[in-house]
User: Which sequence fits this backbone?
């Protein structure tokens, strides 16, 4: 099986753990800017009613990729987070398992 986006995945995971390490042991907030992606600059919402004055944007492909990775890392017990809103995560904290993985990641 070939992982098509392996290098992008690797860079994203490394950046996430660097962000977590910088704030450890305090929980932090993470969004796609930790990887270098623009956050919340995506496409305008597709379904907006005339009375809805929503100004937020839909997440970009990069933001969704980032959020998918954070969710996956949490599902594998590498990190925990309190809340997620529009590809932004609050109360993010690396776990002991995540710290062990971070030690194994190459320094960049």
Assistant:
């Amino acid at each position: 099986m070939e992982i098509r986006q392996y290098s992008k995945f690797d860079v994203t995971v490394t950046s996430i753990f660097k962000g977590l390490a910088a704030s450890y042991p305090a929980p932090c907030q993470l969004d796609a800017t930790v990887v270098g992606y623009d956050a919340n600059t995506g496409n305008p919402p597709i379904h907006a009613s005339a009375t809805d004055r929503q100004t937020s944007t839909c997440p970009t492909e990069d933001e969704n990729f980032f959020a998918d990775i954070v969710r996956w890392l949490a599902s594998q017990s590498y990190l925990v987070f309190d809340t997620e809103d529009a590809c932004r995560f609050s109360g993010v904290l690396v776990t002991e398992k995540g710290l062990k993985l971070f030690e194994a990641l190459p320094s960049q």
Notes: The beta strands are 28-30, 79-80, 83-85, 88-94. The helical segments are 6-23, 61-75, 96-104.
